[in-house]
Amino acid sequence: MISLRHITKCFRDGEREVVVLRDLDLDVAAGAFTAVVGPSGSGKSTLLYVAGGLDADYEGEAVVAGRDLRALSARERAAFRNVSVGFVFQSFNLLPALPAVENTMLPGLFAPPGVPAPSIGQLRIRAMEALDRVGLADKASRLPAHLSGGERQRVAIARALLSRPAVLLADEPTGNLDAVSGEAVIQLFSAMVRDGVTVLVVTHEERVSAAAGRVLHLEEGRLR
């Protein structure tokens, strides 16, 4: 489902070139729950951006859900992300003026050219299905300010699931949560894997990596 080959990612820091990912290889099977651990600044987020088609400025080959990401135009990558990949971040990134159901609907309102746009009614139905999946259908009308941190993260997960993606990428998804809320999010990821979703999480938290079927360590730009 995810195949990265010889990925090298660099950036300039003044006169200095910094290598973030160095000839990195990664294979994640369909329906697997994989965690990548490493200290802050080790390149974990960069790895996710490459795998999700958010970053195309790298050397190597990235094939995700059967698509060669380097072969896609910027518009095609946007369409790929909209349909095939869900993203969950440490910050919930919910719009405070919108209730949970409308926050969940947002990705469907901004479908890129070439992606058929569902009607508002269809989007609402799919958003309610996604909220039900994360246990929040009864709180669909609540604003983010009236939800707990764990509930807001579950809304963010529902939003990531709106397009029923094959791959879910999560960047420190429990970093802002207490133990109980974090455990609920981890259990959600495990349930998605049982449903056939491929989950790749980058984290520094042992409670997340302990739930994964496979744990990789990112050190000096390579996975070990």
Task: Describe this structure in a few short sentences.
With 224 residues, the chain is α/β, with parallel strands linked by helices.
Plain-language structure description:
The protein contains 7 helices and 10 strands. The strands form 2 sheets. A 6-stranded mixed sheet has the order 6-7-8-3-9-10, with helices on both faces. A 4-stranded antiparallel sheet has the order 2-1-4-5, with helices on one face. Helix 3 runs parallel beside helix 5 and helix 4 packs across helix 5 (149-160). The protein is α/β, with parallel strands linked by helices and 224 residues long. The protein is globular.
**Structural class determined from secondary elements:** alpha/beta
The level of helicity is 25-40%
Q: Identify the overall geometry.
A: globular
DSSP strand content = 25-35%
**Major beta-sheet overview:** 6 strands, mixed
- Counted by DSSP, the helix tally is 7
- Mean pLDDT reading: 93
Write down the Rg.
Answer: 17 Å
The strand count comes to: 10
Strand order of the largest sheet: 6-7-8-3-9-10
The helix-strand sequence is EEEHEEHEHHHEHEHEE
Uncertain segments are none
Instruction: Give the end-to-end Cα distance, rounded to a whole number of Å.
Output: 20 Å
Topology diagram in text:
Layout: E1 2-13, E2 16-28, E3 33-37, H1 44-51, E4 59-64, E5 67-68, H2 74-84, E6 85-89, H3 100-109, H4 120-133, H5 149-160, E7 167-171, H6 179-194, E8 198-203, H7 206-209, E9 214-219, E10 222-223
Parallel strand pairs: 3-8, 3-9, 6-7, 7-8
Antiparallel strand pairs: 1-2, 1-4, 4-5, 9-10
